[in-house]
Description:
Blueprint: H1 8-15, H2 17-34, E1 41-45, E2 54-59, H3 61-68, H4 75-85
Antiparallel strand pairs: 1-2
Amino acid sequence: MDGQFDSWLARHVHANRTLHRLHRRIWFSSVNRADEPDGQRFEYLPPEGERFYGVDVLRCGILRFMTRMGVPELTRLICQGDEHIRRYLPPRDA
């Protein structure tokens, strides 16, 4: 999971509140525009209260793929990676 943060630029974008939100909004928009039948579909939820930003997963391509492979129970292991990535996000109080 740490591999995606090997570059200084990636770490900087994820650690900067404004750049990170911009990056995520662009990424979600790009994924949603592709609208692949078995792909991901997200809704970006703006900052609110203590929430840096939120994500509503409307369609999970990983779950669909794992289900087709007969191992849907492994999906949660992949999703746990999101918790690992949280340590690269800006602090809540910044």
